[in-house]
Inverse folding.
């Protein structure tokens, strides 16, 4: 079977010739080694063999965020000022919002040698900021999804893979407004205010999920953010309040249109797996092994595998740092546990990918070993 058929059969719980293998963000379509932009890490020659390997050998899952057209006017824009500048080779972006008598400020930094954006200053610093934020003149949800990005990617992939629609959930949008310490305190001690914040984001996210899944039925989705409510950040009982009730709505919208909802949650899972199951999702990633996580893949497969396709179970730090002969043992263990007994399906995948400008030789060899093992057994 071709790579697209293999992925779709896995999502449906059908038999496959072998487990699919994904390099997660690295897919051989989105990385452009010819773009000279100094902030494009993939123009370093060390990435070229990995990009080619992903294009030619992985079961490609290409993530796409769906933008919207004809969005209703946003009155908050008139209250917002954004400035961008370059300092010491890094790009800084500062956004300020006049929220009543309070000035809310957020600053981010992007470095040329690292493919990520750092939050230098979070928008909300305390409960008073949160209250002012909630009192802003929020617009009603609206607009139509621009589906061309998904359709164009699918055309480019052909039978080599699929597109995965990417979205955060309400807790992801809410928690990202604060530094981690402030978030955990407010989410624990001010549940009424925090629920109001979640409801604010849920209104927009529910609208978008419904219209996107209607316009693009039958696709795989990734819903990220639940890890913000996992231990040790919050008590497991808050996961039900802050994640399950909201994400279940999104999952239902996706799957009522023939899609497949994949919950993304790093770290500790054991105490929240029942709640993840209660969202009725059909997939879960990245199921990090101990010590990064707290549960073995074998247990997740045996207990939850008939409902969920399991994606993972290779830790990114092992991918970059573990000797290849030892990494091969991790690969074989993940395949064995991910396909044992009864289950909907398994996709071999690391928890994330390297984000430095130069790809280490060891990481490349370990990626190559993933393909060697999955293709030759």
């Amino acid at each position: 079977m071709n790579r697209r058929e293999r992925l779709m059969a896995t999502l449906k719980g059908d038999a496959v010739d072998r487990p699919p293998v994904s390099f997660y963000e690295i897919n051989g379509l989105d990385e452009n080694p010819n773009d000279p932009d100094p902030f494009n890490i993939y123009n370093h020659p060390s990435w070229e063999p990995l990009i080619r390997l992903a294009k030619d050998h992985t079961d490609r899952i290409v993530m796409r965020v769906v933008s919207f057209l004809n969005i209703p006017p946003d009155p908050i824009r008139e209250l917002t000022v954004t400035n961008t500048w370059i300092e010491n080779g890094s790009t800084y972006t500062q956004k300020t919002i006049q929220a009543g008598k309070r000035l809310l400020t957020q600053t981010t930094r992007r470095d040329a040698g690292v493919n990520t954006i750092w939050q230098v200053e979070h928008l909300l610093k305390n409960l008073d900021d949160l209250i002012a934020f909630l009192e802003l003149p929020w617009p009603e949800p609206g607009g139509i999804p621009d589906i061309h990005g998904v359709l164009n990617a699918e055309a480019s992939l052909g039978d080599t893979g699929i597109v995965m629609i990417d979205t955060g959930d309400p807790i992801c949008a809410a928690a990202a407004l604060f530094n981690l310490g402030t978030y955990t305190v407010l989410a624990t001690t001010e549940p009424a205010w925090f629920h109001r914040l979640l409801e604010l984001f849920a209104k927009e996210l529910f609208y978008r999920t419904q219209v996107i899944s209607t316009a693009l039925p039958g696709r795989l989705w990734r819903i990220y953010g639940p890890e913000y409510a996992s231990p040790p950040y919050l008590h497991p009982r808050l996961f039900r309040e802050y994640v399950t009730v909201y994400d279940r709505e999104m999952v239902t919208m996706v799957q009522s249109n023939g899609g497949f909802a994949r919950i993304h949650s790093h770290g500790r899972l054991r105490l929240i797996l029942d709640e993840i199951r209660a969202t009725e999702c059909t997939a879960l990633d990245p199921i990090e092994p101990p010590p990064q996580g707290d549960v073995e893949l074998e247990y997740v497969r045996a207990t939850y595998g008939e409902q969920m396709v399991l994606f993972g179970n290779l830790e990114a730090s092992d991918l970059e740092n573990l000797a290849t002969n030892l990494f091969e043992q991790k690969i074989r263990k993940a395949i064995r546990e991910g396909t044992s007994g009864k289950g909907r399906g398994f996709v071999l995948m690391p928890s994330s990918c390297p984000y430095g400008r130069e790809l280490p030789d060891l990481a490349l060899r370990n990626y190559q070993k993933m393909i060697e093992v999955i293709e030759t057994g």
Observations:
- The chain has 13 helices and 13 strands.
- The radius of gyration is 21 Å.
